[in-house]
Design a protein that fits this description.
6-stranded antiparallel β-sheet, TRAPPC10/Trs130, 33% helix, 25 helices, transport, alpha+beta, 6-stranded mixed β-sheet, 29% strand, golgi apparatus, DUF7077, Trafficking protein particle complex subunit 10
Length: 1176
């Protein structure tokens, strides 16, 4: 049987086959067949069906028992135009052929009438059918089935002929009908035979052949999926027989024929398997191989090569136990040879098909490479077994992983080569070559491993690829190709580290470390030892100790630093900050280092890095430590003193050039925040507004440095701005005052000039313990800012170590007082009135005030009281008056302007200083003074910002807000629990004790509070046009009577004391008499313009008429300049002078018309400015 095509026979008794053969062949294969099964199967579509045309044989050839026939259709070609010939001869020939076909099962037939080109298909006249074709149809058509077709020898329509199309359609219908009948028959026979399974005499092989006939029928019709189902059902029934141990139909296990160990398991024609099955003499081995080959054929037809590989892997692995059970009757190494050959057969069969499938779908290569790689690796593992058996490989991992259990405990010395011909030898030539030659073995080993790696890489299975890489490296290692082995080991070990495959990693590391040691690669050797120790849980205690000793003996031979993570060799825990002066000399971080190694380790240096704002990072460290196995408590100190919240970032431990690191800020890990305080025993620096400032001059900052309990040298201080618009000015020298902190006596202080370097650093002098140093540093900043941010860094040497102090400051620059001045000129002096008020909402205590002279003015007279205790409230003003006289000679040692000096203290500073002192004492009683600076800053911000200082100034009592535990706890979050609870209790207790604080308590707790002073430069003119005006009565002895005119003279003189020297400029002025018309009438010029020079006197006559009796104030007189550029002042001699006006002895009544106040004077010139006149 062909097994691939449907057979169609043709009977040609009229010699027309040569005339139609080409036309028929050109229309094959048949296309687009639709099979509608008579059973309950769904419809099947056959896109293409190959047809094998064979001449019909009238001789009855007997078919083998249970063989599946492939003849589905028989064609009879007839060519006859004569009705008589048809009737007498042709009809009998056709009937004989039809009767013969009827004796064959499930075969269809068609009569094909072949007509000439001009022959008419039918000749109907009056309903009579007269053509031969019509007679054939009438004689042989049965029922509705039309078994006759009509074609022409040479059809004028060509390939699109309807006659041929109809003929082809009938061929397809007939083939499908025959196929359907055959399927129904086989299914019925199979069902009947299967129901007899438990009856005596039932034969599985007969059942197999019968059911396989159905599978082959499907295969012939290209229904490969249906065929595969039949073979899968046969496989399931075989396993059922296997479970029932009813293997009577199989003579023996088999696998004893020549070539069985290396035969192609996909070749179902390698043996006459069906004949063996028919004869019930097939072996289990041959039967399973044949069944798998048939299944594989269907899958390959369906182009499901991935499933071929998967089924192949499953078939091989499931068949191995059965082969192993029968190894005693098989040739040597049969199992290894068969598995190797089977894997390679499957791969080689699928490889050509995969090329087209990959071209159609690029993603196909991923899945295919995965199953192919597994088959290649299975084949390669057989080399491992053979290599160990024939001493090409040692009995060590990774070669011994897949050895049989009975071989695993055999040592290399006990392995003996088997006799050459004990039970026969395997026949796989490649394997025979490999076991006879180490070079051939290695070549094959490398080739298979390389193919497997490429396939694993293509399917993105890096772990599997790493395993094969390790096998290659191990092979290089045992062949003493150490350079190649190390290169491979090093390229793959780090990947196992990432994937946490410790046991596999160690097996590679042992060989890698040995290779590196033998090659003298110390750095790489150390790295391998470190990785082994990292995986110490996979090592024995003896091995771990050995590697530890190797590490310690080689760690100082390193050329470069090697960095490794703490875990899992070490564990680290940051406990807390210890800054109690009674517990430690300097602030420390307490940590626990847990040593998981089996031996103590000497650590040269241990460092902990904290990150924050200022500075961005700070290191705590300790040196020369011995870490015993288990937990080790360590205190780390820092050369940097700073304050703020810092996050624990990393830890580094140095052992020679070996550095162990730990990152505390990994993703998903909770941050550990520590609150650092400045070290109380070391140098501390603060920056603030100076105690005394002078407005109008370049401003300065006061830097206060306390040396602490140690002597310092080589000190430098650097101030850095932390905001825009604010900068520290660079000068050559910086003023400084140094004094002991034990007293305030000025005799203990010393003034110095310190150098400022180009970098902005100020060089500090050598200072003894407990000394205070104050520096005044000039700065430049925006006048709109009242708070500047500054970073202070002090570097110095102390006790033979270099240390530094770093702090970030917010400096509040405030001027709590506002001063306005008024100058009142007289002929020989100036009276200066100074008004002082609060600049803000907080009251200020004025403690002292005075006016400092300038180089032009001397202070001749001032208040006798200079020491005050005056509380100035907002919206209040205090006035101070000073008499100034012009110096005869200019004193160039004095400032150009007079300066008002005010010494003060704000009530806010007074209260905060006292509360701070009390709180510090409270903390000192419990030995937590180190937290005072931070705690008090937060207390001021949270609780003292709402204090009513106006009420305190009025009542001398401060009322504090109620304690808020939740608010207080919020700024103690980053403390350890013990410290947080203790501070919280102390602050709460403090507020309970001091709900109301009297001024007496405040003064007692701050007996010497800090005071501030401000020098306000005041602008007092040095020159001015001063006129002295005097209203002189003509007869001062005469009594003034009401309603009588009193002649007067207005005398005006320009003073020469306040005029500019060599000033000959003529300036225009005008006088203005301010008349109260309720008391006086004025006769004369009330306002008049004149030109005046220094020393010149003018007299203007006017008459005054009093309107009332009694003491009347004389009218005021003011002299002003016409030009706005001339500053003029007036000294009016008669200011506030009263004259007595008496009544007349006689009475009289006057009727006075309303006078015009402004009349244009006669014979006067009109000025461009304003006209000035008096009423007439």
């Amino acid at each position: 049987m062909n097994g691939r095509k449907v057979t169609v026979t043709y009977c040609d008794e009229f010699g027309v086959w040569p005339l139609v053969a080409n036309d028929l062949s050109s229309r094959l294969p048949l296309k687009n067949l639709q099979w509608h099964p008579s059973s309950q199967r769904s419809e099947r579509f056959i896109p293409s069906l190959e047809v094998d045309l064979q001449r019909f044989n009238f001789e009855q050839v007997p078919q083998p028992l249970l063989s599946a026939h492939t003849t589905y259709l028989n064609l009879y070609f007839v060519n006859c135009d004569d009705n008589d010939v048809y009737k007498n001869k042709v009809k009998k020939q056709i009937k004989t052929w039809v009767d013969l076909i009827a004796t064959k099962k499930n075969q269809e037939w068609l009569i094909v009438y072949v007509a000439g080109q001009d022959t008419k298909r039918t000749n109907n006249y009056l309903g009579l059918k007269t053509t031969v074709f019509d007679k054939i149809r009438a004689d042989f058509n049965q029922g509705k089935r039309d078994r006759c077709s009509y074609i022409r020898i040479v059809d004028s329509d060509g390939p699109s002929s309807d006659l041929w199309a109809a003929f082809i359609e009938k061929m397809k219908e007939s083939i499908l009908a025959s196929f359907d009948m055959q399927v129904l028959q086989i299914q019925e026979d199979t069902r009947r035979l299967d129901m007899q399974r438990h009856m005596p005499g039932w034969n599985y092989c007969t059942f197999f052949i019968l059911k396989e006939g159905l599978a082959q029928a499907f295969e012939i019709m290209t229904l490969y999926e249906d065929a595969l189902i039949q073979y899968d059902e046969l496989e399931a029934s075989f396993f059922q027989v296997l479970r029932d141990k009813a293997l009577a139909w199989f003579g023996h296990f088999g696998a004893t024929d020549a070539g069985d160990d290396c035969g192609n398991i996909l070749d179902f024609k390698r043996k006459d398997y069906r004949d063996l099955i028919n004869k019930n003499i097939i072996s289990v081995f041959d039967f399973r191989c044949y069944l798998f080959a048939r299944q594989t054929r269907m899958l390959l037809k369906l182009q499901r090569i991935i499933e071929v590989c998967k089924r192949g892997q499953l078939f091989i692995s499931s068949f191995i136990p059965a082969i192993r059970e029968n190894e005693d009757v098989l040739v040597d190494n049969f199992l290894e040879s068969w598995v190797f050959s089977a894997c390679m057969n499957i791969v080689n069969e699928c490889e050509p098909l995969s090329t087209n499938l990959i071209a159609a779908d690029p993603n196909f290569i991923i899945v295919y490479s995965a199953v192919k790689a597994d088959l290649l690796l299975t084949a390669r593992r057989q080399l491992d077994k053979l290599g160990i058996k024939y001493k090409h490989l040692p009995v060590t991992e990774p070669f011994s992983i897949y050895l049989d259990s009975k071989v695993e405990n055999i040592n290399n010395d006990e392995i003996k080569s088997p006799p050459a011909k004990s039970k026969g030898s395997m026949t796989n030539e490649k394997l025979l070559e490999a076991i006879n030659s180490v070079e051939a073995f290695d070549k094959m080993y490398m080739a298979l491993s390389t193919r497997g790696i490429k396939s694993y890489d293509a399917c993105y299975r890096p772990r599997a690829a790493l395993t094969v890489h390790g096998d290659i490296a191990a092979l290089k290692y045992i062949r003493d190709k150490l350079d190649e082995a190390v290169r491979i080991f090093e390229s793959m070990i780090w990947r196992y580290d990432e994937q946490d495959w410790g046991s596999i990693e160690n097996s590679l590391l042992v060989k890698c470390a040995d290779s590196q040691k033998r090659l003298g690669k110390t750095d790489q050797f150390i790295e391998s030892l470190l990785t082994l120790l990292k995986n110490a849980k996979w090592l024995s205690k003896e091995d771990a100790t050995l590697y530890m000793e190797e590490l310690l003996s080689n760690v100082y031979k390193l050329d470069v630093d090697i960095r490794r993570a703490f875990s899992p060799m070490f564990g680290i825990t940051v406990v807390s900050i210890i800054d109690e002066q009674s517990a430690v000399e300097s602030s420390s971080v307490e940590i626990f280092i847990e040593n998981h190694l089996p031996k103590s380790l000497h650590c040269d240096k241990l460092c902990l890095r904290l990150v924050g704002n200022n500075p961005e990072q700070i290191w705590f460290d300790s040196s020369d430590l011995d870490l015993a196995p288990g937990k080790n408590k360590i205190h780390l100190t820092s050369k940097t003193s700073t304050s703020g919240n810092y996050v624990v970032e990393a830890c580094e431990m140095y052992v020679g050039k070996l550095v162990f690191t730990h990152n505390f800020m990994k993703d998903g890990q909770k941050k550990r925040i520590l609150r650092l305080n400045h070290d109380m025993n070391r140098l501390q620096a603060t920056v603030s507004q100076p105690d005394q400032i002078c407005l109008g001059e370049r401003q300065q900052l006061a830097v206060h440095i306390n040396t602490g309990k140690t002597r310092i040298s080589n000190g430098k201080v650097l101030l850095e701005s932390q905001m825009e618009g604010f900068s520290i000015l660079k000068t050559d020298k910086v003023q400084a005052v140094i004094q002991a902190s034990s007293g305030d006596n000025e005799n203990n202080s010393k003034t110095l000039e310190l150098d400022m370097l180009e970098t902005g650093e100020i060089v500090l002098p050598t200072c003894e313990p407990e000394q205070n140093l104050q520096l005044l540093v000039a700065y430049e900043g925006s006048y709109t800012e009242f708070e500047y941010r500054l970073k202070t860094t002090v570097t110095y040497d102390s006790e033979g170590k270099q240390r530094e102090f770093i702090s970030a400051h917010s400096i509040h620059v405030t001027v709590p007082l506002v001063v306005t001045e008024t100058s009142i000129f007289r002929e020989t002096c100036v009276f200066l009135k100074v008004d002082v008020s609060c600049n803000g909402d907080h009251p200020v205590r004025i403690l002292e005030s005075k006016l400092k002279p300038s180089k032009i003015y001397a202070v001749e007279n001032s208040s006798a009281v200079e020491k005050w205790d005056l509380t100035l409230f907002p919206k209040q003003a205090a006035t101070f008056v000073y008499k100034l006289v012009k110096r005869d000679n200019i004193d160039h040692d004095l400032k150009p302007k007079v300066r008002f000096y005010a010494k003060y203290r704000t009530l806010k500073d007074e209260v905060e200083a006292s509360i701070g002192t009390m709180l510090e004492k409270k903390l000192a009683q419990h030995h937590v003074t180190q937290h005072f600076t931070y705690v008090f800053s937060k207390v001021k911000e949270a609780f003292l910002s709402s204090v009513d200082y106006v009420s305190y100034g009025l009542t001398d009592v401060v009322h504090l807000d109620a304690f808020d535990a939740e608010l207080c706890e919020s700024f103690l979050l980053n403390r350890d629990l013990k410290t947080k609870v203790e501070l919280l209790d102390l602050i709460e207790e403090f507020f309970e004790e001091h709900e109301a604080i009297t001024v007496r308590t405040i003064k007692d707790n701050a007996p010497k509070p800090r005071t501030n002073a401000i020098l306000f430069p005041l602008e007092v003119p040095t020159s001015k046009v001063l006129h002295t005006a005097e209203l002189v009565l003509t007869d001062p002895e005469k009594d003034l009577l009401v309603s009588e005119a009193c002649p007067c003279t207005l005398r005006i003189k320009q003073s020469s004391d306040w005029s500019l020297e060599n000033n000959d400029t003529d300036n225009e002025f005008y006088y203005d008499i301010d008349v109260d018309y309720d008391n006086w009438l004025l006769s004369g010029k009330r306002r008049l313009r004149f030109i005046s020079k220094p020393g010149e006197v003018f007299e203007f006559p006017v008459d005054l008429v009093p309107l009332k009796t009694g003491n009347l104030l004389l009218p005021a007189v003011r002299v002003s300049a016409i030009s706005a550029n001339v500053s003029a002042a007036t000294v009016y001699v008669n200011s506030a002078q009263q004259v007595l006006v008496r009544a007349k002895s006689k009475t009289a009544t006057f009727f006075v018309e309303q006078q015009q106040r402004f009349l244009q004077p006669q014979n006067t010139t009109a000025y461009a400015a304003q006209d000035i006149s008096t009423p007439s």
